[in-house]
From TrEMBL:
Lineage: Eukaryota, Metazoa, Ecdysozoa, Arthropoda, Hexapoda
SUPFAM superfamilies per UniProt: P-loop containing nucleoside triphosphate hydrolases
Ranges for domain Helicase ATP-binding: 285-468
Motif interval(s): Q motif: 254-282
One Gene Ontology term of the molecular function aspect: hydrolase activity
Composition-biased stretches (Gly residues): 107-123, 130-144, 157-196
EC numbers for this chain: 3.6.4.13
Record keywords, A-Z: ATP-binding, Helicase, Hydrolase, Nucleotide-binding
InterPro entries: DEAD/DEAH_box_helicase_dom, Helicase_ATP-bd, Helicase_C-like, P-loop_NTPase, RNA-helicase_DEAD-box_CS, RNA_helicase_DEAD_Q_motif
Swiss-Prot/TrEMBL GO biological process terms: regulatory ncRNA-mediated gene silencing
Reaction it catalyzes: ATP + H2O = ADP + phosphate + H(+)
Name of the protein in its database record: RNA helicase
Domain DEAD-box RNA helicase Q, residue spans: 254-282
Length: 671
C-alpha cells in the first residue's frame, strides 16, 4: 500500500548520505536538505519561491502568488461562476487569490484559492492532473496516475468525488525558501480539501523514490555482534515476580541447556551472548513449545523477541512441513506482525540470527520500500514472515501472501498497534478466508501492556491461552536513573546543550513533532554535536541511514519522534533525553526503556514544563516511586493525572481463578 508496482521514479539503493556546509555536518532529510544554503537577497532574508501555476511558488527564485484553480481540461476556465462545459473549472470571480499574507522564514502563506462555484466543467479528471472539477475524479490529485494503489488514490491532494464549490485556504509557506501554496478544492471533495482546503501547514507531496534496501549481511560476526548483551544487573532479574494465569501451565525453564531447544538454536543463542534466559523467556518458551496460545506482558528490554522466536524456530525445525510457494505467492508458516518499520527490521534480523545455519528462510515486508523487491523475496519462499500491518494487507490483497499454512501468528507490541489504529487490520487478518482457524494454529501476543480492549480481541482469536505478566508491567526499569529538570519551553535548547556538553555518550533525544525533530537535529549540528533525526515523514532510506549512523556511532545523537520509542534494541545507548515529555505514561516508559536494557545501567533525563506537562505529573511521580527513584518536590505539585495500573500493570480479564503467582527463585531442579 505504500508505493506503486511500476512507479517511474529513480530506484535508490540504500547507502549513507550526508553533507557539510560551513564546517558543519548534516544528515539528509526535511529541515536540512543535502545541499548548501543559497544566499538570500541583500537584506539577508530568505528568497521567495517562484510563481508556479498561480498557486504559490515552490521554488527558490521569487515570491509566489496566492492560489488559483487548476483545471483538468485543455482550456482554462472563464472568470465567471458558471459551469464551463468541457473546459476546466472556473477560476473564481475577478480575483484569483490574494498574494501571500505574510512573509515567514520559509516563504509567504498562500492566499485563498479561487475556484468555480458549483461543479467544474469537463467530463473526467484525467491522470496526472492537478485536481480540479469534472464529473468524476478518478486518479486526481497532484501527480496521481493510474498505477496508484488504493491508499494513494484515497489521500491525493484534490482527490474525491467532486471538487465542490469554492477554493480552499492557501497552505502555510514551505520550508527552505519555498513560497506559499495556493488553495485547493472546494466543499465536496471527499477525502480532498473540503471547504477550507485541508489542514493549514500541509505541503505538496515530495518526489517519491522506490527504495531498495541493502541486502542483509551474510557476515557471521556482524550478525551476532549487533545486539545488546546482558549487563551487571542481570542477576536482579531473578527477583522479579511472575504471575501466570491458565490451566495446566508448563513449568518454566531453569537454563537454556535444559530447555529442550535444538542444538543449533543453543549454538546461536550462545553466539548472541545470551548466558541465561530472562524471566519472560523462562516462562514463555516452554508454553509455546507445549503448543499453547500465549498473551505475555513484560517490561521493555526484557527479551520478549527471543521468547517467541526461539520456540517457533525450534518447532518449525522439529516438525518440518513442506514450504509452499510458486513464484507468485507464498504460504508462510509463521507470521510476525509489528507496528513500526524499524521494529519489523529488528525482528527480521533476530530471526536470521537464531535460524543461522538452518533451512529456515526469513523474509520481511514493510512500507517505504519497493513492493517489487520485497515481493521477490517473499514469493521465493519463506518460513517466517515479519511484516507491518499495511504492507501485509497489501500483499494479501494482491494474492502474494496466503495464510493457509500458518502455524504461528505473533502480534508484537499489540497495544501499540491498537494505539495506531491497526485493531481492525488485525481482525481482518485473523478472520481472512485463507487463515488457519483458531485452535489449529498458535496465536501469540506480546507487549509491555495489555489493555482490556486488546484482551477482548484475544478472547476471540486465542484458545485456552496462558496469560503471563513479568514484574510490574507498565513500570519503568529500575536500572534506568531518571532525572527531571523543570524547564520552560523557550529554555529547552539552552538546557539541552548544557547537558550534552557534560559527556559524549550515545544519546537518544525524543521530541513530540516531526518538524521539531529536524529543527533540533540541525540546531545541534550547528553547535558541533553531530546529529541526525528519524520520524515518519523521512523517506525510508533516510530513516534506515539515520538509524544505521546512530548504531555505528557515526552520529552519536539521534533526535526522534515516537517511531523510535518502541522495541528498538540499540547497543550502547547510555542516555535518553525527553526534550518533550509524551502525553501518556506508557509512552514515557517505552522511551526511557531504550536504555538500561537486559541488566545494563542507563540514564534518562526529562524536561518538565508545568504549562504543558502538568497532566502527567502524578503518573510520573508514581513511576519514579515504583522504580525506587528520587521524586522532586515540585513534581509532586505539578498536577494530578489519572493512574490506572494494577499491581502488575495488566491483569487477566478471565479473573483470579486462572491466576498463579511465581517467583523465579521458586523454580528448582526437580521439576
Amino acid at each position: 500500500m505504500d508505493d506503486e508496482w511500476d512507479d517511474p521514479v529513480p530506484v535508490t539503493q540504500g547507502g549513507t548520505t550526508s553533507f557539510s556546509d560551513g564546517g558543519q555536518s548534516f544528515s539528509r532529510g526535511r529541515g536540512f536538505s543535502a545541499q548548501p544554503r543559497e544566499s538570500g537577497p541583500a537584506n539577508g532574508n530568505d528568497t521567495w519561491g517562484e510563481d508556479k501555476g498561480r498557486s504559490g511558488g515552490f521554488g527558490r527564485e521569487r515570491r509566489g502568488r496566492g492560489g488559483g484553480g487548476f483545471s483538468s481540461g485543455n482550456n482554462k476556465g472563464d472568470n465567471s461562476w458558471e459551469n464551463n462545459g468541457n473546459s476546466g473549472g472556473g477560476w473564481g470571480e475577478e480575483n484569483n487569490g490574494d498574494d501571500g499574507s505574510r512573509r515567514g522564514r520559509g516563504g509567504g502563506r498562500g492566499g485563498r484559492g479561487g475556484g468555480g462555484r458549483g461543479r467544474g466543467g469537463g467530463n473526467r479528471n484525467n491522470d496526472d492532473s492537478w485536481g480540479g472539477g469534472g464529473n468524476q475524479n478518478n486518479d486526481g490529485g497532484w501527480g496521481a496516475g493510474n498505477d496508484d494503489d488504493s491508499e494513494s488514490r484515497e489521500n491525493n491532494w484534490g482527490g474525491g468525488d467532486n471538487n465542490g464549490n469554492r477554493g480552499g485556504r492557501g497552505g502555510r509557506g514551505g520550508r527552505g525558501g519555498r513560497g506559499g501554496r495556493g488553495g485547493g478544492g472546494g466543499d465536496s471533495g471527499g477525502k480532498s480539501w473540503g471547504s477550507e482546503g485541508g489542514e493549514e501547514g500541509d505541503e505538496p507531496p515530495k518526489n517519491r523514490e522506490i527504495y531498495v534496501p541493502p541486502e542483509p549481511t551474510m557476515d557471521e560476526n556482524e550478525l551476532f555482534t549487533s545486539g545488546i548483551t546482558s549487563g551487571l544487573n542481570f542477576a536482579k532479574y531473578d527477583d522479579i515476580p511472575v504471575q501466570v494465569s491458565g490451566e495446566n501451565v508448563p513449568k518454566p525453564l531453569i537454563d537454556f541447556e535444559r530447555s529442550g531447544l535444538r542444538g543449533l538454536l543453543l549454538d546461536n543463542v550462545a553466539k548472541s551472548g545470551y548466558s541465561k534466559p530472562t524471566p519472560i523467556q523462562k516462562n514463555a518458551i516452554p508454553i509455546i513449545m507445549g503448543g499453547r496460545d500465549v498473551m505475555a506482558c513484560a517490561q521493555t528490554g526484557s527479551g520478549k523477541t527471543a521468547a517467541f522466536l526461539l520456540p517457533i524456530i525450534h518447532c518449525l525445525l522439529e516438525d518440518s512441513k513442506e514450504l509452499i510457494y510458486d513464484g507468485e505467492s507464498c504460504q508462510p508458516q509463521a507470521i510476525v506482525v509489528s507496528p513500526t518499520r524499524e521494529l519489523c527490521i529488528q525482528i527480521f534480523e533476530e530471526a536470521r540470527k537464531f535460524s543461522f545455519n538452518s533451512v529456515i528462510k526469513v523474509a520481511k515486508a514493510y512500507g517505504g520500500t519497493s513492493v517489487g523487491y520485497q515481493k521477490k523475496h517473499v514469493v521465493s519462499g519463506c518460513h517466517i514472515l515479519v511484516a507491518t500491518p499495511g504492507r501485509m494487507h497489501d500483499f494479501v490483497k494482491r494474492g502474494s501472501i496466503s495464510f493457509a499454512s500458518a502455524r504461528f501468528v505473533v502480534l508484537d507490541e499489540a497495544d501499540r498497534m491498537l494505539d495506531m489504529g491497526f485493531l481492525s487490520s488485525m481482525e481482518d487478518m485473523l478472520t481472512h478466508d485463507t487463515m488457519v482457524p483458531t485452535g489449529e494454529r498458535q496465536t501469540l501476543m506480546f507487549s509491555a501492556t495489555f489493555p482490556e480492549e486488546i484482551q477482548h480481541l484475544a478472547a476471540k482469536f486465542l484458545t485456552d491461552y496462558v496469560f503471563v505478566t513479568i514484574g510490574i508491567v507498565g513500570s519503568a526499569c529500575s536500572d534506568v536513573e531518571q532525572i527531571f529538570y523543570q524547564v520552560d519551553k523557550f529554555k529547552k535548547r539552552e538546557k539541552l546543550l548544557e547537558i550534552l556538553k557534560e559527556g559524549s555518550e550515545r544519546t537518544l533525544v525524543f521530541v513530540e513533532t516531526k518538524r521539531n525533530a529536524d529543527f533540533l537535529a540541525t540546531f545541534l549540528s550547528e553547535n558541533n554535536f553531530i546529529s541526525t533525526s528519524i520520524h515518519g515523514d523521512r523517506l525510508q532510506r533516510e530513516r534506515e541511514e539515520a538509524l544505521g549512523d546512530f548504531k555505528r556511532g557515526t552520529k552519536n545523537i539521534l533526535v526522534a519522534t515516537a517511531v523510535a520509542a518502541r522495541g528498538l534494541d540499540i547497543k550502547n545507548v547510555k542516555h535518553v533525553i525527553n526534550y518533550d515529555l509524551p502525553k501518556s505514561i506508557d509512552e514515557y516508559v517505552h522511551r526511557i526503556g531504550r536504555t538500561g536494557r537486559v541488566g545494563n545501567r542507563g540514564k534518562a533525563t526529562s524536561f518538565f514544563d508545568s504549562s504543558q506537562d502538568g497532566a502527567i505529573a502524578g503518573e510520573l511521580s508514581r513511576t519514579l516511586k515504583q522504580a525506587g527513584q528520587n521524586i522532586p518536590d515540585w513534581l509532586n505539585q505539578g498536577g494530578g493525572g489519572t493512574y490506572t495500573s494494577s499491581s502488575f500493570g495488566g491483569h487477566d480479564i478471565r479473573g483470579d481463578d486462572f491466576a498463579q503467582s511465581r517467583n523465579v527463585e521458586d523454580v528448582t531442579d526437580d521439576w
